[in-house]
Amino acid sequence: AKKKGIQNIIVSNGYIEEGTLKELLRYIDEANIDLKGFTESFYKTYCGATLAPVLRTIKQIHEHNKKSKKKCWLELTNLIIPGLNDNPQDIKNMCEWVVKTIGTDVPLHFSRFYPYYRAGDISPTPIKTLVHAQKIAQDAGIQYVYVGNVSDPELQHTYCPHCRALLVRRGGYDTTIVGLTRNTCKGCGEKIAGVF
Q1: Pure H helices in the chain
Q2: Rg of the Cα trace of the chain?
Q3: Which stretches in the chain have pLDDT values below 70?
């Protein structure tokens, strides 16, 4: 695919051995890592795993991008499950770790949980919980924070972190660039992080 000029994207839980990831980064252009929670107890109880390897993967991709000419665009997703990983302090700790470790311009997606399979008895994530998580992330300094699995497109648009102009409008599977010239905000000239 790479030889044919096709962009390669992975969506991963981040549980990747370091050597394997190093090799994989030669071929992938974008990665979305699912940061399922931010406590070891959550990972142990609900994922049967540990948090540390996922954080190591995120850091490894970030370090690769600092050293390599061939970058891998990185985004993070956190599915917020009521009563399991929705503690505001844990979300704040996660956001502060993101800012300190990989910076403010890595997009963070908070996704709404819906009951399914073995978690069928848990209610959908309240929208106010997701909006509160978004505010926590923005207050921590993360510039591109999205709320997903919701019908409100306003929570999914991209806005300029400097002047708040609408840059990218999203609705369902439709995406329209409205306020960008290449990677620059038409309103204020701010350089916008991303792959356009």
Answers
A1: 18-24, 40-42, 52-67, 88-102, 127-140
A2: 17
A3: none
